[in-house]
Amino acid sequence: MSADRVFHLEQALLAIIAVAERQGMAELLRRQAIGGLTANTRWSWVVADHVPGAINEIEIAVQMLRKALPE
Q1: Which of 10, 21, 42, 45 has CB atoms 3.0–4.6 Å from 26's, for a disulfide?
Q2: How far is Cα 5 from Cα 45, in angstroms, rounded to an integer?
Q3: Helix ranges (DSSP H) in the chain
Q4: Is residue 37 within 8 Å of residue 54, measured between CB atoms?
Q5: How far apart (Å, rounded) are the C-alpha atoms in residues 64 and 12?
Q6: Which domain, by its residues, includes 26?
Q7: How many domains, the chain?
Q8: Distance CA 20, CA 17 (A)
């Protein structure tokens, strides 16, 4: 994957979480995303070997935004 694509995906994830945070839904979004990654068999695109890394990236993004966004 190109560095540009990684940057674009990171920006997209941060934007989605920022909107959810503004609407008071970031914690719900985080829990549902992690639950979907770990338990949703309908998400056929999930590769089990990459789930821990994906969950870690979600957690990092949430923490980063909470530090960056004004309260």
Answers
A1: 21
A2: 18
A3: 3-22, 26-39, 51-68
A4: yes
A5: 14
A6: 3-68
A7: 1
A8: 5
